[in-house]
Design goal:
This protein is mainly alpha-helical. The protein has helices at 10-42, 71-97, 101-108, 116-140, and strands at residues 47-53, 56-62, 69-70. A hairpin with a 2-residue loop joins β1 and β2 (56-62). α1 (10-42) packs antiparallel against α2 (71-97), α1 packs antiparallel against α4 (116-140) and α2 packs antiparallel against α3 (101-108). It is a multi-pass membrane protein.
Length: 149
């Protein structure tokens, strides 16, 4: 028999799900920004994003010519740290739900495969909410006791 979440953990699971959903959206957006930045920098365009330089508040400049804040590097670093937070939220939800290890790996891939985090956020959210609703409805039903003679 597979392990099931404990009813006393249901409030913690709801909190872990909300944390996961927020982390999933932030990580997904950061990953898309990172992909756009990589396309600008590592294609023949060879552009980087500069903040507050002599070309204006926000400018695309040739690679290696950034003189102000290099937003391209900032996006890279921010995504890396948000991915760590995303992995923590994944681990927390996975351990409370007592899912198999492969589920942890699949959810973790959401932070490195563009758009996957958005799909996983929706499907994991539906799955967890449906599970909790079914278990709570089951617990709320009156238990029938058979009389023995």
């Amino acid at each position: 028999m597979a392990l099931a979440p404990k009813p006393k953990d249901f409030p913690r699971i709801r909190g872990a799900l909300k944390f996961y959903q927020v982390a999933s959206v932030i990580t997904g957006v950061m990953l898309l920004l990172l992909c756009a930045e990589m396309l600008l920098k590592y294609t023949p365009l060879g552009l980087e994003l500069e903040l507050g330089g002599p070309r204006g508040l926000l400018a695309l400049v040739p690679e290696g010519t950034v003189v102000a804040v290099n937003l391209s590097t900032g996006i890279l670093i921010a995504h890396g740290w948000f991915y760590v937070v995303y992995l923590f939220s994944d681990f927390r939800l996975w351990s409370l739900m007592r899912w198999p290890f492969w589920a942890f790996i699949v959810i973790a891939l959401g932070g490195v495969i563009p758009f996957l985090s958005f799909f996983l956020e929706a499907s994991v959210g539906r799955r967890v909410k449906a599970y909790l609703a079914a278990r709570e409805a089951e617990a709320a039903r009156p238990q029938t006791v058979e009389a023995s003679h």
